[in-house]
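User: Sequence in, structure out. Go.
Assistant: Echoing your sequence, followed by the structure tokens.
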Amino acid sequence: MATVSGLFDSYDDALTAVNKLQALGIDRAQISLVANNADDWYGRDTAAAPAAEHRDHAGHDESHAGEGAATGAGIGAVVGGAGGLLTGLGLMAIPGVGPVVAAGWLVATGAGVVAGAAAGGAVGGIVGAMTSEGVPEERAHVYAEGVRRGGTVVSARVPDDREAEAQAILDAESGVDVGARERAYRDEGWTRFDPDAPAYTAPEVQRERARYRA
């Protein structure tokens, strides 16, 4: 198996890529998605769904990816497309990223985002989960930073003989040129994803998205 990944400024574009991967024959259990939720689009669009994140009696945030996530057609349409719900759908807060909607093996595996969020660091989070699957560390840092700034990362485990086709889907016109985006970040003084950095606010995320649309 090989791991392919792509970054998208638009969640809708990421969802289109997920659906194309499934149409290629990739099992949805092998597809993962992590989308910035700073502007609470998931909360608005899935208001009828039980929340997967709540506060404990001491007032601390608790994240339980997949727990309480609705399995109705509406949620499936938003997150999983025509193929249905991706594995492990849930809301959580990731250090340095903030609130996200996450689904798939990045959530479901022990080295995934849930473990990283609980540990309070990126080593076990997005960066660690991706590098453990063979994504180069520098590239994984760019993906994590892209999500922090409002984007959505899609990553899939695919058979070796489907790697080129699957990567082409993620590199299509709607996908971000990750090399160019990394250079843009570095031109601003960015060096790597920092789990201790403040998460972007909803207005900041909206400005960042508008910047790349322009």
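User: And one key feature?
Assistant: Residues 47-83, 114-124 have pLDDT under 50 and may be disordered.
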